[in-house]
Amino acid sequence: MFRYVFFLFSFLYLWPTNTFATEQSQVSISALVEKAKTALAEQDEHTFDTTMGDLYERITGFTLPPSDSDAKFTLPEGVSEAEYIEKTCNYARLTEPIFTRELLDVIRHQTALLAYSVVLEGEEDEPYVRAMMECEDKDGRVLETSKFMREGIAWAKTFQAADTQQAMLMAKDIKALAKQNPQIKELETLSKLVGYHTQDKQEMEKPKSDASKKNIDNIAYRTRLVEKAHKGNLSAQLTVAHGLETGNIFSQNNAMAYFWYKRAYQNSGGEEAQSGMDRLLPHLTDVDLISIDVWTRRGHRPY
Fold first, then answer.
1. Is Signal among this UniProt entry's keywords (predicted)?
2. What is the value of pTM for the model shown?
3. Residues 6+ away with beta carbon under 8 Å from 94
């Protein structure tokens, strides 16, 4: 159930297609809301998933894209940015009461990972982010889910601007939070990402000895390598994937390695890319698979 909520916030908000729903269900929206509440209370994940998808289409008028779509975010055809934000906010207003306090606490931590990714990619002003941040109810109260995104964006920006000492403290806090909530796998992922980026800050701020200069050169090399891979260089994609799989260039990360092997396979990477995906797939968690899907849809370059 919690896995779906993360999917909901990383997918339903972010990836409407350019088509509208053509058939309206005969079931009222209020009945669908009650159905979702009942499914949540009974831990009926299939019914909950289906009903939330129905609510999204009914309230926004947007049709959900196929699960294997790799399209980047675009506004639905004929829909202005303001209209898109208003429709998605309507969805948030009507569905937030479905969530229990316990589930909202989980969503808060899951949203932190999304917010961190948004800041890294410089997407704070994208319509889907604004839709998540600007939602208020009819009385002007900021929705809980919007607060979560605002808090996450603020935290991520603070970390990005932090010096090594402050970054280490922030990384320590996230690591402790992840240990306290082992069931929320997105916190574990966020902790790892923040840890990697803290290490980079440490390397950049070390005295410029020959060793530290070498480390800085290595950071620059990794950055250039990922940039080439992101632009479609097959050799770079395979090098990044192998480096993430083995940990000999980057910090070891199975999900990120799989992502780059997948990119390479889609770029005529052939047997080498396929073998890499086959090796890693048994080791991927549900959260890893969702993260890979989000990175793919949003055109990210994780490392």
1. yes
2. 0.65
3. 29, 33, 55, 59
